[in-house]
């Protein structure tokens, strides 16, 4: 009887083990799908050599508090999470860009897979002097967001759209740095979109 119980337990473990070894789906969150963020481009396979972010484009989460706190310079696009470090690689300035018109109205779109109580969504842009071949730092980003959307603790929709006016007088390449400030945790979600005016 004892031998049969041990064999039954071992058989059950042998059946369960392959399923336990499958990669678990991360607690999903959200990413910008328009203009295409770096994580979206990796998730769609349009950019290669992205590492783990290709399977989890929604997971760029890091400490909140930007610009006074939050991720360190050079680690902004990955939210200071080493798993997503390929997002901080400037790739010689060769990230695909989305064409935008300076001063025009634009709708920023998030795909949110796990909704969180939210303080704000904030959108920043790099300064005209930004060098796309260098890792992103605070010194390269305008200090004031060009669009802030307050939520007051509400939950964003699974498909969230924020419409605002793009900075005027811009030409050439830029990077839009978006910060989704969660209200009920110490973290925020970060997203980098390469654009060309």
What does this structure look like?
This protein has helices spanning 2-21, 38-43, and strands at 30-34, 61-63, 98-99, 105-112, 118-125, 147-150, 159-165, 173-182, 187-196. By secondary structure, the protein is an alpha+beta fold. It has one domain: chitin-binding protein cbp21 (Coagulation Factor XIII, Chain A, domain 1, Distorted Sandwich). Strands 2, 3, 5, 6, 8 and 9 form a six-stranded mixed sheet that branches. A hairpin with a 4-residue loop joins β8 (173-182) and β9 (187-196). Residues 5-28 have low confidence and may be disordered.
Topology of helices and strands:
Blueprint lengths: L1 H20 L8 E5 L3 H6 L17 E3 L34 E2 L5 E8 L5 E8 L21 E4 L8 E7 L7 E10 L4 E10 L1
Parallel strand pairs: 3-9
Antiparallel strand pairs: 1-4, 2-9, 4-7, 5-6, 5-8, 8-9
The major beta sheet can be summarized as: 6 strands, mixed
Summing up helix and strand content along with how strands pair, one would put the structural category as alpha+beta
Q: Outline, from the CA principal axes?
A: globular
**How many domain modules?**
1
The oligomeric state is single chain
In summary, what is this structure?
The protein is an alpha+beta fold. It is built from 2 helices and 9 strands, in the order H-E-H-E-E-E-E-E-E-E-E.
What structural keywords apply?
6-stranded mixed β-sheet, alpha+beta, Coagulation Factor XIII, Chain A, domain 1, 3-stranded antiparallel β-sheet, 197 residues, 13% helix
């Amino acid at each position: 009887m004892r031998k049969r119980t041990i064999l039954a337990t071992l058989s059950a473990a042998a059946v369960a083990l392959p399923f336990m070894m499958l990669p678990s789906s991360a607690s999903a969150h959200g990413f910008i799908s328009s203009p295409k963020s770096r994580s979206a481009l990796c998730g769609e396979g349009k950019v290669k050599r992205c590492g783990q972010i290709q399977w989890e484009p929604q997971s760029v989460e890091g400490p909140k508090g930007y610009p006074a706190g939050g991720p360190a310079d050079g680690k902004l696009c990955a939210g200071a999470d080493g798993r997503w470090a390929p997002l901080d690689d400037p790739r010689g300035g060769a990230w695909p860009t989305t064409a935008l018109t300076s001063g025009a109205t634009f709708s920023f779109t998030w795909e949110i897979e796990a909704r969180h109580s939210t303080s704000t969504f904030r959108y920043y842009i790099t300064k005209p002097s930004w060098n796309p071949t260098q890792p992103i730092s605070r010194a390269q980003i305008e200090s004031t967001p060009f669009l802030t959307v307050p939520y007051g603790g509400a939950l964003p929709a699974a498909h969230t759209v924020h419409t605002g006016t793009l900075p005027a007088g811009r030409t050439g390449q830029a990077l839009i740095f978006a910060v989704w400030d969660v209200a009920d945790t110490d973290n925020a979600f970060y997203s980098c979109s390469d654009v060309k005016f």
